[in-house]
């Protein structure tokens, strides 16, 4: 049990905004391609799975966006991806739709945000060593893994390095964004000069 949950009685509700699929033309790769890169990394590192806890990694890995974090198109949750390519996305139940289930396909299941511990226990026969992000993984995640009988290996989030290697489409998107931002800045500065 999380001690903070015990003493913080008036916590705000978790966000329940809709989950949007981020178009492949902007994402640069399909979610299947990204998952394939991650599973190759898992095998190379000797990990049976990885529990993702960073919202930006979850958004990148599944090409999903939401409004859970103000001014940032991220969704809060956890994700488990095995070296065999199956996994679970843990998000607030109100966000789970049939369209999202269809988009993720048969290999990725959806579960409640609070269902991480139960899912790990259900998978204890198929995994032994599970990675946890050294920067965003919590003690609670490590405890869940150990309670379920897994070895928790603290390591870097594989999405961080892989998503830094931009595709041709992503690079074009960055360039286009810089042009739009530059035009907006010029318009703003022109307005400031006219005001003075």
Tell me briefly what this model is:
With 196 residues, the protein is an alpha/beta fold. It has helices at residues 3-7, 24-27, 31-45, 55-62, 98-104, 116-122, 139-147, 158-164, 168-195; strands at 20-21, 49-52, 64-65, 78-82, 87-91, 108-112, 129-133, 151-155.
The chain-level mean pLDDT equals 93
Strand content: 15-25%
Residues in helices, as a percent range: 40-55%
Distance between the termini: 59 Å
Question: What letter string, H or E per element, gives the SSE order?
Answer: HEHHEHEEEHEHEHEHH
Low-confidence stretches: none
| Number of helices, counting only DSSP H or I runs of 4 residues or more | 9
Q: How would you characterize the largest beta sheet?
A: 6 strands, mixed
How would you describe the shape?
Answer: globular
Task: Describe the overall structure.
With 196 residues, the protein is α/β, with parallel strands linked by helices. It is built from 9 helices and 8 strands. The strands form 2 sheets. A 6-stranded mixed β-sheet has the order 6-5-4-2-7-8, sandwiched between helices. Helix 5 links the parallel strand 5 (87-91) and strand 6 (108-112). Helix 6 (116-122) packs parallel to helix 7 (139-147). The chain is globular.
